[in-house]
Specification:
The chain is mainly alpha-helical. The protein is built from seven helices and two strands; from the N terminus they run ααααααββα. The longest helix has 22 residues. The chain is globular. The model has no long low-confidence stretch (mean pLDDT 88).
Length: 153
């Protein structure tokens, strides 16, 4: 079993490197967790993380939650403790942080330059303004000491 520093550091590194979901997907496959195949598998992992781990609202304990708990015991313990009084505590905190990042940090860099609409962790913009929006996100993440990984949708 990993100690707190190891599994929490791994959790953070995998998330920052943008490979967290892929690692969980691979781990579930190796543990024969029943899940969809092909392109649907990553979305399934993402949903199971939110439902079974972050808000503990799924069938519990699920095979996915058990795999997560074994790989990240201290992170799992922290999540369960934080959610003890209200199972939506972690999700609410994450949504508030995402919204603050976008609304208080990224959007002000754009507000007098291009029209934008914010929604939690996203900014909607015109196609021709995409580069400016990406640059504003990159600048914000750089200010926070992170490397940016964005997906266009």
């Amino acid at each position: 079993m990993l100690d707190f520093d190891d599994d929490a550091s791994d959790y953070a590194s995998l998330s920052i490197d943008g490979v967290f979901y892929e690692m969980l997907l691979d781990l579930c496959r190796r543990r024969d967790v029943k899940m969809p195949e092909g392109d649907l598998a990553r979305g399934w992992v993402k949903k199971r993380l939110f439902v079974d781990v972050l808000i503990c609202a799924g069938e519990y304990p699920s095979s996915f939650a058990m795999v997560f708990r074994e790989r990240f015991p201290s992170v799992s313990n922290f999540i369960r403790a934080a959610n003890a009084g209200y199972r939506g505590m972690i999700i609410s905190a994450l949504q508030a942080m995402e919204a603050a990042l976008v609304i208080q940090n990224v959007a002000p860099k754009l507000v007098e330059r291009v029209p934008v609409i914010t929604l939690h962790d996203a900014i909607y913009c015109r196609e021709r303004d995409r580069t400016l929006v990406r640059d504003a996100f990159a600048e914000t993440f750089e200010e926070l000491g992170f490397t940016l990984k964005l997906k266009d949708e």
